[in-house]
Amino acid sequence: MNISTAPIPLLRNRMALFGWIFMSIWMGMLVIFTYLFRRDGGVPGHSFELGALFLAAGWLIGLGATAFFFNMPVTRVFVQGGSVILRERWPLRAKVQTFDVKDAENIFVREEKDSEGDAYFICYLRTPEGRDVRIKEAHLREIPEKARAELLAALGLAGQAG
């Protein structure tokens, strides 16, 4: 029996999945509503123009939100030997980047605000080309801080100050 030697992901950030699923459901329902609207000639008891306006607004919001959420990747970080493997996946494409441990020393947690103005903490991994990739995020600071500590320990950089 051949056991795969593929590395096990050290960190995963699947937050984008929620947006992908929500927008897939939204757009699916919008297709159904559009079909029903065209089939029935509008919404009973309301003017055709008003119904068409609401439907157009739904499409405008839906397409914009779909573009926004489908541009957010699901990320996985692996540490194997002296390399860091960063895998990013979007609904229609994927990117794998491998770089040396010494090029992955810039791992930091940044406090940001969510849509309601509450504190939101994100652990970033800065790639060698200077791109900041979200590798863990949460409303509690401890979660991304723990992810940062785990990654630094796996890289042999556990003594780095935050």
Please summarize what this structure is.
The chain has three helices and seven strands. By secondary structure, the protein is of the alpha+beta class.
Description of the structure:
- The chain has 162 residues and is an alpha+beta fold.
- It folds into 2 domains: 56 residues; 82 residues.
- It has 3 helices and 7 strands.
- The strands form 2 sheets. Strands 1-2-3-4 form a 4-stranded antiparallel sheet. A 3-stranded antiparallel sheet has the order 5-6-7, covered by helices on one side.
- Helix 1 runs antiparallel to helix 2.
Could you list the spans in which at least 5 consecutive residues all have pLDDT below 50? none
Mean pLDDT: 88
Beta percentage is 25-35%
Number of domains: 2
- Shape field: elongated
Helix content range:
25-40%
Sketch the topology as an H/E string, one letter per element.
Answer: EHHEEEEEEH
- Number of helix segments? 3
Count of distinct strands: 7
List keywords for this structure.
single chain; 162 residues; alpha+beta; four-stranded antiparallel beta sheet; three-stranded antiparallel beta sheet; 3 helices; 7 strands; 28% strand; elongated
